[in-house]
Structures are given as C-alpha cells and as structure tokens.
Amino acid sequence: MKIIITGPKCSGKSTIGAEAAKRLEIPFYETDGIIEELYSREHNDKLNFYEICEKLGEAAFREYEKRAVKEAAELDWCIISVGGSTLMDSDSRRLLRDDSVIVLLKADLDILWERLKNRGSSIYFSRPSPEDYFRDVANKKIEAIEPFADVTIDVSDDKDNPGKFISAVTDYFAVLSKSPNTQGQVIRSTTFGESHGDAVGVVLDGLKPGIEFSAEDIQSELDRRRPGQSSVSTPRSEKDKVRILSGVFEGKTTGTPIAMIIENKDQDSTKYDIIKHLFRPGHADFTFWKKYGIRDHKGGGRSSGRETAGRVASGATAKKILSERGVKITASSAEIGGVKSSSYNENDIEANPVRCADKDAAEKMQQAIMDALKNGDSLGGIVELRISGAPAGLGDPVFGKLDARLAGALFSLGAVKGLEFGDGFEAARSLGSEFNDQMKDNDFQTNHAGGVLGGISTGQDILIRLAVKPTPSISRQQETVDIEGRSEKIKIEGRHDPCIVPRIIPVVESMAALVLLDCWEIQQRLRSDI
Questions:
Q1: pTM, whole model, 2 decimals?
Q2: Bridge partners, residue 105, by sequence
C-alpha cells in the first residue's frame, strides 16, 4: 500500500508529503525526482525536471515520466508526490491507482496564485497571460483527478497541513478496514460466496483457543436452515454439509481464524439465463446493477439468502458458547399471512414446519402458505425473538448500543423490513406512566422496553419482533424493465420458498448470538466480573 499525494501547482505536495512521511517514519518519493535520477543515470548529467523537459521536448519528457510512474508503482508503504498532469494520463493513473490511496490537495486558486508569485521563477510567467494560464491548468487538473481521488484535503490555510493529511488518510484507512462483509469487533464473522457459485462459507475470527468446536454442533443449526426440508420451503435440495478448513485442532479452537465452507450441490442456473437481462421485482438486481455496473444474475448471487448459510455456521458457535454461559436464544413464527399465534409453547416450535410456538396457529399458517403457492404467490410474516439469560451491562453508548447493533445485524438480512424491541411502536401510543418499567425489590416489574435501556442490556429477557417480507420470486407475471430501461413482462420460474419465515428463524438466532457474544467479549475487557 502506498499513498499518492497530488494537486495543482503550489498546493504543497512536496512539503506536506515530506513532512507527513517524516512523522509517519516512512519513505517519501517524488516522481519528478525519479525522472531526474533516470536521466542522470542515462546521460551522466544532473538536470532538474524543468531543464530535462526543456532539453528533450514535451514528448520525450513524457516518456521519462511514464517510466518514472512504472518505478513508483513498484514501491510499497511510502508517500509519493505526483504532478497533477501525470495523473491526467490514463495509463499512469491505472498504474498508480493499484494498491494505493490517492490524496488530492485543493486550495482557493487566489491563494495558490499568490504562493506562485511569491515563489518567483516559473514557466507560468513566460506565458502571455500567466495568471489565466495558471488558473486554467489548475482547474483542469482538479476536474480530472477529483473523481477518482480517495481523499480530498483543503490546504487553503497553512495550519499544520501535514497533520491534516495524516488525519484524513488515517480516517480513510479506518473506514476501509470496516468491510461490509464482516460483522463484529472482537468476534468477527466474514461471509463469502454466491447462490450459484461453487460454495458459500464464513471465516470466524476472534475466538479464544481451547474452545470445544465440532462440525456436528454447526451441522445441527445448518440443518434447520437448509432448503428442501419441508413442503413450505424451496424444493432445492442442498445437504449443506459444513467442512472446517482451519482454526481447529483435535476438536478445539486454536485461536486462529476458523474457515468453514458449505458447497453448493444442487444449483440450477438454466431458469435464470432466460431472464438475465431483466430486473426481478422485489430483488436486489436493479440496485446491484446500479451500484456495481455488473451483477451475478444466477440466483441473485451475493444478495441471495443462500449467503446466510455462512452466518448460521458462525452463529452456531456463538450460540453454543452463550448457552454455556446461561443464555438462551429462541426465535419463532409469530405471524404468517395474517394468521397470528395466540399462545407460546417453546416445545412446539420445532415440531411443525412453520416453526410456530402455537400448534393450532401453525396448521393455519401452513395452509395459508400452500394456498399462496397454489396461486403463484408468496407470504411474509413476523418472527419473534426471545433472548433470556443475558446479563445486565452489554452494549456501549452511544454508537455501540446493544439494540442498535442487534438491529443492524438483523436488518442485514435481506428479507427483514421492520423491527421493534419490547412494545415497539405501541410505545408511541403509550403514556410515560404506562411504558416506564418501574422497579421494586431490586427487580423490574414490567418489560415494555424489551430488555434494553440506554442501549445497554437490563438483565431481563430481550424481546424483538421482525417483519419479514414475502419472498419476491413468484410465478405470477409481473412488470419490470431490462438493463436498457425498456418495459418488459417477467414470470419467474425455478425453485423458491413460498414463505421465507420458517427458514429465516435459525438465521435470526445466529445473528443475535454473534452480536451478543461480541458485546460480551467487549464488556469483559471493561469489567471482567460480567
């Protein structure tokens, strides 16, 4: 990784770059200096880059510049000052863009012109209208470079610009390190793979060494999530057998990253090939296309629910560790297709295909799903998540609040469109005297807040309800557009869940477990008595 610093004349590239490199204790280079070295080696003559340009002419000088860029591109972990005109060349830009951060220095052109005048001699002053020429060149450089600059810094004032440079680059690296494919701070889970690729999987990092770890524990949770397990799920038949590739030795964690892979065995892409130029309503096809300019049309690629197999593999481990600490995480179908559960018996959840804690409601939910399927449609529903045994004190104000982190993790599931803690939206219709969870005898008398106050767990049950949308893949004809924006009709074929609610339940539990375990590990660094 290298840091490229560029900008118009007199923006301070060399001064700021050299001082920042000194403070960071890394090397500093200038492409102008590399050009001078190249010329000196070949001609046994020391000239500065202005003199080289004047002696050789523009075309020959640019060839030296390209060679200097090639040498600079091979450097690593350093700061390189590059002239603005260099980055206006597409080939040079491509070479320097690889494995680098490009920092553009900008300033008010009046200020830059004053700096240039105070400096004295410059090729700009040989022009008929030097100031106009300077402004024109500076504007062109900024307009050309700004679109692909990673960091832009205003250096109009001279107040510790090297410090501003270091701070801005540090902030950029901090953002860069937070991959959108990774969840967690101490316990980190990074998923990979696509629906119709060779495999999906996860890398779980941050677990302490010596924890008992077996494929069987993970497999039992994956079996709850896998497709083809009942009449109300997709007929795609995946065994979802997990393979542990690293991080485990003789049944115990080694403290190193644990890589797990689940191969895709029963993918059928033929139904997707005929609609690859169309955006499926309700799916992420359109947004992925707009964001990346490319998308995997086979099964939705990365946006497919198939990706969640990796989450369950890592979440199974978190659930087991939390279980040993007395925490129980249970999700169930509270409503499907307008059919609501009216009782709660935990033993009934895994005894019916819709995973409802009310066996009478479960039968009606199952029938509602089959009716929707028969009509070429799908259903959504509500999942209820109950977490018991979590100690008070988990969660960090203000941006690391437990409810905020749980919400973020659960909203990362593509099918989740709404979420509430405790009384949720009913709180908006309550009086303070009704909603407040009053205390007596060192205990709460109610739990309207859902087990979280001020973003920190209270020690009560954590209660969450999630709204899950209907599966977007339905066999009814719908209106859409193609990648050129032309109106089209689409009818989706293939194998799809008529209702995703029953299969999302183990995923919901896994995401909650990963967040809770991570928050617990963070808290133990603050106070080991929890």
A1: 0.71
A2: 153
80 and 206 belong to one structural domain: no
Positions at the binding site for ATP: 10-15, 127
- Sign of the torsion angle spanned by Cα atoms 264, 266, 269, 272: negative
Q: Which residues, in sequence order, are CB contacts of 460 under 8 Å at separation 6+?
A: 444, 447, 451
Is the same domain home to 114 and 232?
A: no
pLDDT of residue 175: 66
| Sheet arrangement for strand 199-205 | 182-183, 188-193, 199-205, 258-263, 242-244
CA distance 508 to 315: 9
Annotated binding site for Mg(2+): 14
Angstrom distance (rounded) from CA 500 to CA 65 = 58
Pairwise pLDDT comparison (259 vs 493), residue with the higher score = 259
Tally Cβ neighbours within 10 Å of residue 91: 10
> Which structural domain, as residue segments, surrounds residue 478?
182-526
Residues 210, 332, single domain; the answer is yes
| Phi, psi of 66, deg, nearest 5 | -65, -40
Q: What b/e readout covers 114-130, taking b as 16+ CB neighbours within 10 angstroms? A: eebeeeeeeebeeeeeb
- 59 class by beta-carbon count within 10 Å (0-12 exposed, 13-18 middle, 19+ buried): exposed
As for how many domains the chain has, the answer is: 2
Token pair listed for 136? 């024109």
Q: Which CA distances in Å does 52 have to 45, 68, 507?
A: 10, 13, 65
407 shares its domain with 444: yes
Q: The domain that contains 201 carries what CATH number? A: 3.60.150.10
- Give the pLDDT mean for 136-158: 87
Q: Kindly state whether residues 417 and 452 are assigned to the same domain.
A: yes
- Annotated binding-site positions for FMN: 302-304, 454, 469-473, 495
Structure tokens at 361: 């409601």
Measured CA angle at 71 (ends 66, 74), to 5 deg: 130
Please, how many CA atoms are within 13 Å of residue 413, restricted to the half-sphere of its CB? 32
Q: How far does the chain reach from its first CA to its final CA, in angstroms?
A: 40
Beta-carbon contacts of residue 336 (< 8 Å; ≥ 6 apart): 354, 356, 365, 368, 369, 379, 380, 381, 382, 499, 501
Which positions make up the binding site? 10-15, 32, 62, 84, 127, 225, 302-304, 454, 469-473, 495
* Residues making up the binding site for NADP(+): 225
Residue that is last in its domain, among 140, 157, 177:
177
pLDDT tens per residue across span 346-394: 999 999 999 999 999 999 999 999 999 999 999 999 999 999 999 999 9
Among 143, 177, 211, give the residue marking a domain's end.
177
The CATH number covering residue 73 comes to 3.40.50.300
Residues 139 and 224 in one domain: no
Clarify whether residues 517 and 426 are in a common domain: yes
Residues 302 and 153 occupy one common structural domain: no
Q: Residue 122: what pLDDT?
A: 65
Dump pLDDT digits (tens) for 448-457: 999 999 999 9
Peptide bond into 202 cis (omega under 30): no
